[in-house]
Design a protein that fits this description.
Rossmann fold; Arc Repressor Mutant, subunit A; 2 domains; five-stranded parallel β-sheet; four-stranded antiparallel β-sheet; 9 helices; 12 strands
């Protein structure tokens, strides 16, 4: 039996991008039946027209499309501050999943997919996006502790509540949702080795599929962004064990 959706889903709009009209109709009808609003686009060009006209909470994006493919469209989305993306592809090998995740997708599913599984993945991604850090601003006000969500390390600042990262020059650095969750895990557990399984739990939740190399590529992207503003190694690879966040971290 289907779980009852929270009322917020009635205001949640998903954009489905696929050149197959049958798939667009099937996914759209199923999601609307479960309380979501949907919109459809037949290719990346139409997708961008829709995005220019209104905002969406999530995009379901096909990979194999004539002309511009989904990965190219994803790359352009990640250059801005686009909504989270779940990729769909008839090519479902681990390598293809890793490439999609490395480029910034929140999840990757092989076609044909079960609409119920897609619904579950959408709910998971939206829950991650809506998740509030444990120490919220309200909690800080109650305890009288200011900036309890602010962490500092090696000249960097990260605000977990505002989801903002500033480099030592006080310039904002854009992070994907996965990169931000990894950084949060590191600053909350500095100077200790975190295994890939621990990082998967922190960054993607215990109900996600485990792809060890997906964590590796996400960390590679995060490390590359952090290295641009720091002359020292911030994330150390511990052979056969995992990763360690090297700098000392101050809270507040």
């Amino acid at each position: 039996m289907d779980a009852i959706l929270p009322a917020m889903n009635l205001e949640t709009c998903v954009l489905i991008v696929d050149d197959d009209e049958g798939i667009r109709t099937l996914v759209s009808s199923f999601l609307e039946k479960h309380g979501f609003r949907t919109d459809c686009a037949g290719d990346p060009s139409e997708m961008r027209q829709k995005l220019a006209a209104r905002s969406y909470d999530l995009i379901v994006l096909d990979v194999m499309m004539p002309g511009e493919d989904g990965l190219s469209a994803l790359r352009k989305l990640q250059a801005g501050d686009g909504p989270p993306v779940i990729m769909l592809s008839a090519v479902g090998t681990d390598i293809d999943k890793i490439v999609g995740l490395e480029m910034g997708a929140e999840d990757y599913m092989a076609k044909p997919c079960n609409p119920r599984e897609l619904l579950a993945r959408i709910r998971t991604v939206l829950r991650r996006r809506a998740a509030v850090p444990k120490s919220s601003s309200a909690g800080a006000a109650e305890t009288g502790v200011a900036h309890s969500n602010l962490f500092r390390f090696a000249g960097w600042k990260v605000d977990l509540l505002a989801r903002l990262l500033s480099d030592p020059e006080d310039q904002l650095v854009a992070l994907s949702d996965g990169e931000f969750r990894l950084l949060r895990a590191f600053v909350e557990h500095p100077r200790r080795v975190l295994t890939r399984d621990q990082l998967l739990d922190y960054a993607r939740g215990s109900d996600s599929e485990h792809y060890d190399r997906a964590i590796d590529v996400q960390i590679s992207r995060l490390r590359r962004k952090l290295s641009a503003g720091s002359a020292t190694e911030l994330i150390r690879t511990v052979r056969n064990e995992g990763y360690m966040f090297v700098p000392s971290v101050q809270r507040g």
